[in-house]
Amino acid sequence: MSRTWQAPDALAAQSPLAISLEAVSFTYRDAASPALRNVSLRLERGQTLAVLGHSGAGKSTLAKTLNAIVPTFEEGCFTGVGQVCGRMLAGTRVAEIAPLVAMVFQDFEAQLFSTNVAHEVAFGLEQLGLPPREIAARIEPALAAVGLRGFQTRDPTSLSGGEKQRLAIACALALRPQLIVLDEPTTDLDPQGRAEVFCLISQLRDQGLTLVVIEHETEELRHCDRVIVLDHGEIVADGPPARILTQVQMLEKCGVRPPGINQVLAELGIEGYARDLDQAQALIEASMGSQVRPPDPASPGPSSHSRFAPNENQQNRPVIAPLVRVEGLGHIYPESAMPALDEVDLTVEDGEFVAIVGQNGSGKTSLAKHIVGLLRPQRGRVLLAGNPVEALTAAQIAARVGYVFQNPDHQIFAATVEDEVAFGPRNFGLDPKEVDARCEKVLQAVGLDHLRKCDPFLLGRGERQRLAVASVLVLAPKVLILDEPTTGLDYPHLLRMMNLIGELNAAGTAIIIITHTPWLVANYARRAVLMSQGRKLFDGGVAELLAQPELLEAAAFRLPEVAALGRRLGINALTIAELVRALRGAR
Amino acid sequence: MPIYLYLDRKTFIHRLHPAVKIVGIFAVFWSVYWVDQPLALLPLGLILLGVVHFTDAWPNFYRLRWLFIIVIFATTLTWMLFYRQGRPLAYLGPLYLSRASLEFGFGRGLKLAELLATSVLFLSTTKVEEFATGLAKLGVPYRISFAITLSFRLVPLFIDAALVVVQAQALRGHEFNRGGPVARVRRYLPVTIPVFMGALRKANNMAMALEARGFGYSANPTSYLQYRLRAADVGTLVLVLLIALAYFGIYLSGYGTIGLA
User: Which of A147, A207, A208, A260 has the greatest number of CB atoms lying within 10 Å of its CB?
Assistant: First the structure.
């Protein structure tokens, strides 16, 4: 079937509703329960809708329903009636609805398949059969709208995560659709990249585009017009952010992390909704009287904010060679002008909990890969317990340092969970009884002992992530490096993962975690290393780092909202509990 | 390290019509097919080296230098095992060393190296999108040309993913190069399964993304890249066809075959 280009307006009847779903249910083939249950949703044109919910709540299925991927691409049982931008979904192919509904997928790398940025934007327009002159005319404005002007000839694979995500949005914008669906558009992005994407979403909203945004980070969703919460395929809450984001208990019950400042207000029993820090400060001051005082520079701040402080025995150990010592480390990747690492020094002692933070491409993962010997230092050296890493065998390195990759699927291959965990110890020739004992212990530690005979590929993302930790942990390393261990996890799974890491640390394992999430650093780490352009900008206590907003800004890292609110109120607090405790004390 | 071979340069070859470049590749393949004699293959090799220099494609050839060396040497030695023609000069175990076997083996190695060099040159000077446009201009249906070019985009991505998996398993103490050939193949199972599963997942996501971006909306999509056949394209086309004809002439003259002396 061949078509010539028609403007989306001509394709769609001018319905005042962008989305109209009536009693839509969908069950994936072979699934035990429906992904969507009796969902009815009406969204007016020009509105921005935020969709919240735990993993498996039906968010992505709902998103895919809006451009007919469900049920035309995904097989299953679909019931109900759907209309999007005036077009009935029944009998509509995905490609047919593409001029009206654009989608930015969670796996944004899977939707970039061209060799330069201009071709990438042109791809969708070519498919619609637009004349070449029209295609050329649309590329520049679409890239300018997302801040990628001048990137036309760049290879998409060479862009940073934030740039790739913005390119995916530019591809959607170039189609000039009536509705854009963004499925977790900031996964993998550093705080600055995340802020850029949400700033862009605000601009698009102001231009009158209809937007549907699926997101875990609720702090970013306050400017939406409407929020719905999905739980096991059903809409359990629907309303403006002021009504939904203040229901802290309901959100937590549905596996959604409530915005930090709203949690603080709820804990203090203050009624009202804060859209930003100004409003939160005003509400607290109005409730407690004006007790604002400027931060005391001499104040030491919270001494230990981790719930998983090391025990006394660890603190009083005799001085021995540090577990990890990095000296003057330098590395330049082939065909790269900029050093990935430049004169980096780092020491990690027994039982420490270190967070390595910094924007995408700042050198965090390169540093971690040097520590486990995956990269050889071009300058400087890396010592593990006093021994140069290049002089150690794989088994010796594994006994000292474990490395959990960001994507657990990079290592899972065995037929059962148990075999997956046992793979490492068997490689090192451990006695079978010892292997069994270790597997038993770590599977219990990560809470997967009841799934030991299961096929790892059938586990959920959170469980696969814990399995990846278990399969490294079983080698009993003294240091565990985790590269973005919470990516793609919903709030309950994230808490479970972080609690597990905290417990390991309390039991004596030194932790090095690479993360982009400021509140995780504030809640769990005791020491922070800030990287920027391959150099170490800061190395010290978390409270000390977060007390330097200029430094954070220079490295594109953001103060957690709760810490920022605390500073405005003259309180050095990093976590919700600390801030609430301090405010109650002041009361 | 860039995962694609394309080198963004502004040379004459880069600017050629992609359909002419595709015809050029087939002309080289045709030429190579008819001759076995290394001396007969040499002029074509020199022309290819000249094009490599002219297009500044040396970085890609440097990256793949070991592949070229292995192809030439391994092919030469392999044919010396089986091509037992001509008067033997020496006995080196199972290797049959005669002028004919040496010439034949080296000629085969050179042939493969020239085929490889032509392909690398093509990918160094032609974007995947240009490749698709060129195939479409030659009458290949859009869906087929897109599928062919998509494979060129995906292979480097899968290689990239495989390298990460190798690192992940090595850190768990897995040694890939232990045991005999069969054992070694088996030892790659912990890599192939994650890569295969990842490829399946990526293929599924990509198929969804393709349709969501309008793939299939029109049976005859337009192309942002617009090419007209210029005098330079016609001239190049004539030149490569003359080279192909010349090599067919060498074959007919009998010079391209190996003597049994």
Answer: A260
Mean pLDDT throughout A326-354? 91
Query: Which residues in chain B have their CB less than 8 angstroms from residue A125's CB?
Result: 222, 224
Distance from CA of A4 to the nearest CA of B (A): 8
Cα–Cα distance between B14 and B7 in angstroms, integer? 9
The answer to the question of residue B152 being in a domain is: yes
Q: Sort strands A479-483 and A510-514 into parallel, antiparallel or unpaired.
A: parallel
> Which residues of chain B lie closer than 8 angstroms to A407, CB-CB?
164
Residue of chain B nearest A397, judged by CA positions: B171
Tokens of A451: 């799934």
Question: Residue written as tokens 């056949």?
Answer: B229
Q: Is A208 in contact with A214 (CB distance < 8 Å)?
A: no
CA neighbor of A483 nearest in space, from A501, A495, A503, A499: A501
Q: Is residue A337 within 8 angstroms of chain B, CB to CB?
A: no
pLDDT-derived band at A315, boundaries 50, 70, 90: very low
Chain segment A520-566, per-residue pLDDT in tens: 999 999 999 999 999 999 999 999 998 888 888 888 888 899 999 99
Give the residue carrying structure tokens 């020739």.
A429
Structure-token pair, residue B64? 């793949």
Contact B216 A127 (CB under 8 A): yes
pLDDT in tens, A362-380: 899 999 999 999 899 999 9
The tens digit of pLDDT for each residue in B128-171 reads: 889 988 998 999 998 899 888 888 888 877 888 888 898 888 88
Token digits of residue B115: 């085929």
Query: Has residue B171 been placed in a domain?
Result: yes
B147 touches A at CB < 8 Å: no
Residue A162's closest CA among A96, A108, A100? A108
B62 near A CB under 8 A: no
3-state SS string over A315-337?
Answer: HCCCCCCCCEEEEEEEECCCCCC
Q: How many CB pairs under 8 A join A and B?
A: 186
The C-alpha atoms of residue A258 and residue A255 are separated, in whole angstroms, by 9
Write the pLDDT tens digit of every residue in A408-452.
888 888 999 999 999 999 988 899 999 999 999 889 888 888 999
Tens of pLDDT, residue by residue over A129-174, are 999 999 999 999 999 888 888 999 888 887 877 788 889 999 999 9
Its domain, for residue B19, covers 12-219+227-253
Q: Would you call the peptide bond into A71 cis, given omega within 30 degrees of 0 as the criterion?
A: yes
In this structure, is residue B3 part of a structural domain? no
Q: Given the structure tokens 């291959």, which residue do they identify?
A: A413
Cβ atoms < 10 Å from Cβ of A269:
8
pLDDT tens digits for range B49-104: 999 999 999 999 999 999 999 999 999 999 988 888 888 888 788 888 888 899 99
Distance from C-alpha of A214 to C-alpha of A186, rounded to nearest angstrom = 10
pTM of the model: 0.82
Distance CA A469, CA A348 (A): 20
Query: What part of B 89-118 touches A (C-beta under 8 Å)?
Result: none
Give B-chain residues touching A98 at CB under 8 angstroms.
211-214, 217
A401/A479 Cα distance (integer angstroms): 5
Per the structure block, which two tokens stand in for B173? 């103490």
CA dihedral A97, A98, A100, A102 (to 10 degrees): 130
Long-range pairs of A136-139 with CB within 8 A, sequence gap ≥ 24? A136/B224, A138/A174, A138/A176, A139/A174, A139/B224
User: Which residue has 């317990």 as its token pair?
Assistant: A385
Distance CA B129, CA B6 (A): 11
Q: Is the residue at B2 inside a domain?
A: no
Q: How many domains does chain B have?
A: 1
Cβ separation A136–B1 shorter than 8 A: no
* Min distance A56 CA to chain B CA atoms (Å): 17
